[in-house]
Design a protein that fits this description.
The complex is a heterodimer of chains A (362) and B (295). By secondary structure, chain A is α/β, with parallel strands linked by helices. Chain A has two domains: 262 residues, no CATH class; 79 residues, D-Maltodextrin-Binding Protein, domain 2 (3-Layer(aba) Sandwich), CATH 3.40.190. Helices cover 70% and strands 6% of the residues of chain A. In chain A, strands 2-1-3-4-5 form a five-stranded mixed β-sheet. In chain A, a hairpin with a 7-residue loop joins strand 3 and strand 4. In chain A, helix 7 packs parallel to helix 10. Chain B has a six-stranded mixed β-sheet with strand order 6-7-8-3-9-10, with helices on both faces. The radius of gyration of chain B is 24 Å and the shape is elongated. Chain B has ten helices and 14 strands. Chain B folds into two domains: 216 residues, Rossmann fold (3-Layer(aba) Sandwich), CATH 3.40.50.300; 73 residues, Alpha-Beta Plaits (2-Layer Sandwich), CATH 3.30.70. In chain B, helix 6 links the parallel strand 7 and strand 8. In chain B, helix 8 crosses helix 10. The chains are: A alpha/beta (362), B alpha/beta (295).
Chain lengths: 362, 295
């Protein structure tokens, strides 16, 4: 009688884990819903700027005010000079300004940060020249999209599949089939098989979500999504995969320490905090360059902070590489740690272990 | 033949196995008996390589046990466990493939075993949808699915009705008849007594008895006889070298050093009146077990 080799045994575990999820109605439903939801969100988002821009304030000098006569739905702020109007635009208090101009054939021109609001140009009776203060500035909508979007993708994947891997470990522990499995293969095979299977599932789900987002973008005609985010996304992919393996390993270890599903929350909540706090920090400090620089080197926030800084152009070319190396090193450590805890705890039944106990038990 | 030599194992400061040694012979059903917490499950886990021994050796036909040997053992752990929500046949196939069986071969073998064990349900049912007794049958099938060359079963009969016990027994016996070593633990001593070729009794992690049931009887107890007459047997108490174990008017059970001494009692009874029956008394495994575990 032979014994399946290390790799083919891992293959068996991966196959089963994936088949069980794919056959689960609950899993497939939530996956499909989230994929469709993301696509729909982007499809609708194309319409958002025009919906909201009508309420943007516009600064006007006396000449500008004349040109704006008759457009009641635009909020006007009267200023003394074109320079004062530019200051208001830079500080973000107004979206654009209409000022007198000698260059313009109609006698006035529109000033804006990176593009003139359509609601404004449409309201003017004659087409003015448009002066842009900083045409290359990152689109704030897109910046938020990168931060929030990638953040949600990473956070959701880590939480969903982290819990998937944890409940799969506890299921085997609780039902005690783990003892039969360990008589046929090693604890390492079980753990690595589960981690790889969940990484494949998470990546497949995100790939499909990305596809759905692209379709949504095509529907809304939002071609910006494609061009400008290509490089940030290119960094997100490797950082996500490596970071996800790290999270999955920690969840597997946390799950091996308990005997019942009810106890899982207590050992897995520290991991949840490790994912959640940096995620919140990235959203809160998205405009603070030095905090973002620090966050891009912290393994748990790198996957979101690095693409965001790449997009904003505030990162040196070598920085993402350093982040990736730090993340890979941390992931390796997490795998070693998880293997150690998993091998020691997987057969143990009875009260749950603390992280400290799991590491120090002989 | 699988041999355990001087196995020691501690959990923390508590030593649960002390220099445990015994053998499981080829083609022999070996019963593994001991009270709760005596170390049976730990021994079986060490045998399967699920746990490591602190010291000691395990050999198969004289050479040290390897993962390949261990892989050829069918194992049924004390705490039953399979995937509750997975179809029965699928989990048998999954387990078999770890042992290198192809999917097709595993499926064929799995269906055969479920038929042989008389599973009351469809092989495609999920495990949780069949009764506990049927889940137990699936568990036995899981131990046999990869065509093992030896069996180690922890309490294989617990939870089975008498019909299922017989059916399982037949499956195990026919397995041992192919020349494979079979070790199983059980608390049902009457069943063990009827079934086993060899007995291994442990108490608090130490071997207290090992051999055939007959050998153990001879080693441990003074032989006993029963005698039924038509007159009162109170006088047996007065005899030297004879110990009365139980006395009920005209019936007595006593122990003696040898058959001659016992026959002397019978002849004296015969001279006092008629003797209805006189026979050696077989000590039940139950008592044997109590004797060796509570000295």
């Amino acid at each position: 009688m032979s014994r399946a080799s290390f790799t083919s045994a891992i293959g068996l575990v991966i196959e089963r884990e994936i088949m069980v999820r794919v056959r689960s109605k609950a899993f497939m439903t939530s996956t499909i819903v989230s994929i469709v939801l993301f696509g729909a969100l982007v499809a609708v988002s194309g319409a958002l700027p025009t919906l909201f821009s009508s309420t943007d304030k516009v600064a006007v000098t006396s000449a500008g005010a004349e040109a704006m006569e008759g457009s009641d739905d635009i909020d006007l702020v009267t200023v003394e000079s074109a320079d004062e109007a530019k200051d208001l635009i830079r500080s973000g208090e107004v979206a654009a300004a209409v000022v007198e101009s000698d260059d313009s054939p109609v006698g006035y021109s529109v000033i804006a940060e990176r593009s003139a609001p359509e609601s404004l140009t449409g309201a003017l009776s004659e087409v003015p020249t448009v002066q842009l203060l900083d045409p290359d500035a990152p689109d704030p909508v897109l910046t938020n999209f990168i931060g929030l979007g990638l953040g949600i993708v990473f956070f959701m994947a880590a939480m969903t599949f982290g819990n998937t891997i944890a409940s799969s470990v506890v299921e085997e522990k609780q039902s005690r089939i783990v003892e039969i499995l360990l008589a046929s293969t090693s604890a390492r095979v079980l753990m690595f098989g589960k981690i790889i299977a969940c990484t494949i599932l998470a990546f497949a789900q995100i790939g499909l979500t990305a596809l759905s987002v692209l379709i949504g973008a095509a529907i809304s005609g939002n071609d910006l999504v494609l061009g400008k985010v290509a490089e940030p996304i290119a960094w997100f992919i490797p950082l996500f995969i490596v970071g996800f393996v790290m999270v999955a390993a920690l969840y597997a270890a946390a799950a091996s320490m308990v005997s019942r599903t009810e106890d899982l929350a207590s050992t897995s909540s520290p991991i949840m905090m490790l994912i959640f706090l940096p995620y919140m920090a990235v959203i809160v400090f998205s405009s603070n360059e030095s905090v973002m620089a620090v966050l891009s080197y912290i393994p748990f926030s790198a996957a979101v902070a690095v693409p965001m800084r790449v997009f904003l152009g505030t990162i040196e070319w070598w920085e993402p590489l350093i982040s990736l190396v730090i993340l890979a090193g941390t992931t390796l450590l997490a795998l070693l740690l998880a293997t150690r805890i998993f091998e020691r705890s997987i057969l143990r039944s009875g009260p749950k272990l603390s992280w400290k106990q799991a590491l120090t038990r002989s | 033949m699988i041999t355990l030599e001087n196995i020691n194992r501690s959990f923390g400061s508590k030593q649960v196995l002390h220099d445990l040694s015994f053998s499981i012979g080829d083609g022999r059903m070996t019963g593994f008996v001991g009270s709760n917490g005596s170390g049976k499950t730990t021994t079986m886990r060490i045998l399967l390589g699920v746990l490591a021994a602190d010291s000691g050796h395990i050999t198969v036909d004289g050479s040290p046990i390897t993962p390949t040997h261990r892989s050829a053992i069918g194992y049924m752990p004390e705490e039953r466990g399979l995937y509750p929500k997975m179809p029965i046949i699928d989990q048998l196939i999954y387990l078999a493939r770890f042992h290198g069986l192809s999917r097709q071969a595993a499926k064929r073998r799995g269906l055969e075993l479920l038929e042989e064990l008389d599973l009351n349900g469809e092989p495609t049912d999920t495990l949780e949808s069949v009764s506990l007794g049927n889940q137990q049958k699936v568990q036995i099938a899981a131990a046999l699915i990869h065509e093992p060359q030896a069996l180690v079963l922890d309490e294989p009969f617990s939870g089975l009705d008498p019909v299922a016990v017989e059916r399982t027994l037949n499956v195990l016996k026919s397995f041992a008849d192919t020349g494979a070593p079979v070790l199983f633990s059980s608390h049902q001593l009457d069943l063990v007594e009827r079934l086993v070729d060899d007995l291994v009794i442990i108490n608090q992690g130490r071997l207290v008895a090992n051999g055939t049931a007959e050998q153990l009887r001879r080693q441990r107890s003074r032989p006993e006889w029963t005698l039924q007459t038509e007159t009162d047997m109170g006088w047996v108490r007065e005899l030297p070298d004879i110990t009365v174990v139980e006395l009920d008017g005209t019936w007595v059970r006593f122990s003696a050093d040898n058959a001659n001494a016992a026959e002397a009692v019978m002849r004296r009874a015969l001279s006092a009146g008629s003797v209805r029956s006189f026979a050696p008394h077989t000590v039940a495994l139950n008592r044997l077990f109590q004797e060796v575990t509570q000295p």
